[in-house]
Structure formats: C-alpha cells, structure tokens
Amino acid sequence: MTDSHEPWHPSAAYLYVLHLDGPTLAWEYLRRHPDYRRDWRRHHRRGDAVAQRWGLHGLENPALDARDAHPAWCPKPAGVVQLHPDLASTSDATPFDLWRMVGHKHLFHDGQHLALTVWVPGRWRRFALAPALVHGMPYVRAVHSNDPEISFPADEHAPWAWCVARPGRTTLLEAHTLQALDGTLTGARLREVAEALYGLAAVAADWHADSALRARVRRLAQRGTVLMRGGYRRLLQHAPAAQGRLHVPAKRP
User: Fold this and answer.
1) How many CA atoms lie within 13 A of 149 on its CB side?
2) What are the Cα distances from residue 183, in Å, to 29, 61, 189?
3) CA–CA separation, 206 and 188 (whole Å)
4) Is 129 helix (H, G, I), strand (E, B) or coil?
5) Strand partners for 84
6) Chain centroid offset of residue 163 CA
7) What's the whole-model pTM score?
8) For residues 193 and 47, what is the distance between their CA atoms, to the nearest angstrom?
9) CA distances from residue 58 to 40, 128, 228 in whole angstroms, order as listed
10) Are 29 and 231 in contact (CB under 8 A)?
11) Using CA atoms, how far apart are residues 172 and 216, in angstroms rounded to an integer?
C-alpha cells in the first residue's frame, strides 16, 4: 500500500501539469534528473558552461516547478514570436504596451536578449523583444519559417481571447507519467505507483504478472525515465502530441 504522506502520492498535486506546453513540460522532466540537481548544487553560481550540457543558457533552480521557473533554453523552443519595431507603420498601428497584454508576465534576459513569457489559463506565449523596441512604439511580429503556424485572436488584449479546450488524453498522459516517474525515483514499487494512480480497488482487482494495468504502469515509468534522460529536448520542438510527445516513427520495410 502506498504511503499517503509521500509527496508524489496525491494526484491533485499534478493538476497544474494539465496546462503545460512542450517547453514547460521539458523543464518538469529535466528538473527531476539526479545529475542535473547535482550540477545545480555544485555550479549554480557560475554554471553557464555546465548548463549547455542540459540545453540551457544558465542553470535554473530545480526546486521550482514550471509555474515559477523560467529556464532559458538553447536553442530556443519552437513557436517563439519575435517583436520588432514597425518601420513602415500606419496611423492605426497597434503600439507595444506590455501592461495591456493579458496574463501573468515574466520578463528576463535569456543570455541573448529580453525574453517575455505570458501565461493565461490553458495557454503559454513566448516572445523575444528586439533591443530597439520601446513602450508605445508600433511593432510587428515575426516567427521562423520552420516553426508551427501561430494564430492570434483579433483582440489579444481581451481576457476572453485565449480560451482553449479542456485538456485531452495526451495531456493527462503527461501528468500520469510525471507522477509515475516521481514514484520510481523514490524507490516505490510499480504496484505502489499503480495504487496512487488508479486506486486500491482497481489494483486489487487487476494486478498480476500479465495484467494490462501492470503493463501500463511499467510503460509510464519507462516513458518518464526516457524523457528525463534527454527525451525532454524533443518537447522543445513540439513533437506530435497525438503520438504521446515521444513518438518515433516505426521503420518499415
């Protein structure tokens, strides 16, 4: 039986994962890596060179979850929108106004330029600000040609503009994977992880050597380990969510 006092046991503690995107999920897996946590303890004051091993410009505190951490990834995640001064603006051009942007904002230097992350319930937005851009100046957006297409609402300052659908099965998979990973990192047996995820009754009814439940929990634990040990880098480039964010196309004859 699982210990209810274990920090990884309550599934409610992982509800915030349902609102994370690729880069924030990548941080959740990386911050659990024992070697990364060791590097943070030893080198966080002067760890830029060490950080590059993990795909970062600088080491971020692994005690902070994705709601509070702002890791500076290198290379940058897909989907970062660049904001530049509009050199051919019209009289009705929209001026840049950081404080009118809806959502929780965090502005920081990522090692190359000012970076801005904006979070509203269910959605993250990431921006790179050109050095010449100042408050009140007309601006334009730019994205890399190989980035996924990004659509903006007609009025992105409206609080209702970023409404999204409720999380689906793929998102729930991430929450279960992180919970299973946390359990295995503490040394919990697969059965204990299953009891935390699916309940005592379900495990008592369907737990044996060849059960589907046991195989599912084993896959969750293995998936979490793969993502923690380097697979998180694929999440930065928006691996296809429909394939569980870690899909490798099968080789066919």
Assistant:
1) 1
2) 13, 21, 8
3) 19
4) strand
5) 140
6) 19
7) 0.77
8) 35
9) 10, 17, 18
10) yes
11) 14
The number of residues in the chain equals 253
Contact 227, 221 (CB under 8 A): no
Q: Which residue has the tokens 């600000």?
A: 129
d(CA 81, CA 114): 12
Compute the distance between CA of residue 185 and CA of residue 221 in angstroms, rounded to an integer: 9
**CB burial string 239-248: b at 16+ within 10 A, e below:** bebeeebbee
97, 98, 110, 230 from 129: Cα distances, Å:
12, 11, 11, 29
- Which residue would you say has higher pLDDT here, 161 or 63? 63
Identity of residue 181 = L
Separation between Cα atoms, residue 44 and residue 70, nearest integer Å:
15
Q: Count other C-beta atoms under 10 Å from residue 177's C-beta.
A: 28
Give the model confidence (pLDDT) of 70-122 as tens digits. Answer: 888 888 888 888 999 998 888 888 899 988 888 888 888 877 778 888 877 66
Tokens of 138: 């007309």
Of 175, 186, 188, nearest to 223 by C-alpha is 175
- pLDDT at residue 102, rounded to an integer: 81
159, two tokens: 């609080």
- Name residue, tokens 């349902």: 18
Largest CA distance in the chain: 71
> What's the first-to-final CA gap in the chain, in angstroms?
46
31 within 8 A of 69, measured Cβ to Cβ: yes
